[in-house]
Write a structure and sequence with these properties.
Elements (H helix, E strand, L loop, with lengths): L8 E7 L3 H12 L7 E5 L6 H8 L4 E3 L8 H7 L6 E5 L3 E3 L3 H11 L3 E10 L4 E2 L1 H7 L21 E5 H6 L13 H10 L3 E12 L7 H19 L2 H14 L4 H12 L1 H7 L5 H15 L9
């Protein structure tokens, strides 16, 4: 086991009130041949999660901010990372043995590559997550040295990222809190000249937690899509995307709440608005067209 260790990557997890799922994930990480250091940010769990981690996995660095930081809990964890790469992992996902080593090798060999996102297998069915097809068939082109299709965004539950790249763009934006928060960070990485890639040979498993509220996730996800659109897209594309969402999202109370929350946040969004240049907007437009026919990205629930 010692000969297989890999000290290049730290695993970062945020969690809230999912004690059993998190303990399962930590047990899986503990068994990996890479033996990665692990940092867990407990976002104010009330189910004994933090105490259970401290008791059962004393080697894990446990951060207890005392409140729910959302995705910014990852920023807190990355501030403690001392390795060149950070593997984001949810409390209900776990990496295949050898995947972290392989990701580290890919990043070592490609200094312009910010992140690699893995193939996601949904458990217990053992089937690919529908989002995998979107990544595999990405409409973006990239340099020949990429290890797979170029991506416009990554999935925080299934990505190994260069620590310096994450810090370079300031991590996850506190205004979005949680829900589709990767899109803004990804755009800022692309703007700085970094590349993102899907890699078929990397695998992570996902057994969706039963402790989730799909309606709340849809509300926050749609709100954040609108905020991201107005933070980074030029005026006409932002208007078109907003209009498209108005026409196509379910006409229900959840959508009304999402749009109301988006409108309420417009003052800070417009203050921080910083549209991308034309070359990058052309790539974002390609991604938007692909998203419109995707079966994986629908605002339902």
């Amino acid at each position: 086991m010692q000969d297989s260790m890999d000290t290049r990557t730290t695993v970062v997890i945020i969690t809230k009130d999912r004690c059993q799922e998190l303990l399962r994930t930590l047990k899986s990480l503990q068994a990996l041949p890479e033996q990665p250091p692990v940092i867990v940010t407990d976002n104010g769990s009330a189910d004994g999660t933090a105490d259970a981690v401290a008791r059962n996995f004393p080697e894990v660095l446990l951060l207890r901010p005392g409140r729910n930081l959302g995705a910014v809990g990852r920023n807190l964890a990355v501030s403690r990372v001392g390795t060149p790469y950070v593997a984001f992992c949810d409390d209900d996902t776990w990496w295949d043995p050898g995947a972290l080593r392989a990701a580290g090798d890919l990043l070592d060999e490609r200094p312009g590559l910010a992140a690699v996102t893995a193939r996601i297998i949904v458990e217990p069915a053992g089937e690919e997550d529908p989002v995998v097809a979107d990544m595999r068939d990405s409409p973006l082109s990239g340099p020949d040295w990429l290890p797979g299709p170029a991506l416009g965004s990554f999935l925080a539950a299934a990505t190994v990222m260069r620590t310096d790249a994450f810090r370079d763009v300031g991590g996850f934006h506190p205004g979005l809190w949680f829900g589709g928060e990767e899109e803004l960070l990804s755009t800022d990485l692309l703007r700085r000249g970094w590349w993102l890639s899907y890699v078929e040979s990397l695998t992570i498993h996902h057994a969706a937690s039963t402790v989730r509220d799909s309606t709340v996730r849809r509300i926050v996800g749609l709100r954040n899509t609108l905020w991201y659109t107005w933070l980074r897209r030029p005026l006409m594309p932002a208007l078109r995307r907003t209009g498209y969402l108005l026409r196509t999202v379910p006409r229900d109370a959840a959508s009304v709440r999402a749009f109301a929350r988006a409108v309420a946040g417009l003052p800070w969004v417009l203050r921080q608005r910083d549209p991308v240049p034309p070359e990058l907007e052309a790539r974002l437009a390609l991604l938007e067209r692909a998203q419109r026919v995707s079966v994986a990205r629908k605002y339902v629930g």
